[in-house]
């Protein structure tokens, strides 16, 4: 355990930031999962809204510094590509 006052403060700050970042990460994972489920489902009704919702959460998580900007870009790119592929398949058939 920390002995100095500054070290105790750092422990408290780290715990507080860990809990905050954990909630952002959980929300990010759940939103991306919902978007992927929407892409894999047969119904393409709310696909665009799910994609926009996921992109919003991804960018917000990135701006808070919870995830790296390249990871955010990769997630958005993959979701967008999968969505466009699904919409193309539906319109072709």
Automatic annotation (TrEMBL):
Task: List the GO cellular component terms.
Answer: cytosol; small ribosomal subunit
Name the Gene3D superfamilies for this protein: Ribosomal protein S20 (1.20.58.110)
- Name one matching Pfam family: Ribosomal_S20p
Query: What's a single GO MF annotation on this record?
Result: small ribosomal subunit rRNA binding
**PANTHER family, per database record:** 30S RIBOSOMAL PROTEIN S20, SMALL RIBOSOMAL SUBUNIT PROTEIN BS20C
Q: What does this protein do?
A: Binds directly to 16S ribosomal RNA.
* Record-given protein name: Small ribosomal subunit protein bS20
User: What organism does the record attribute this protein to?
Assistant: Desulfurella amilsii
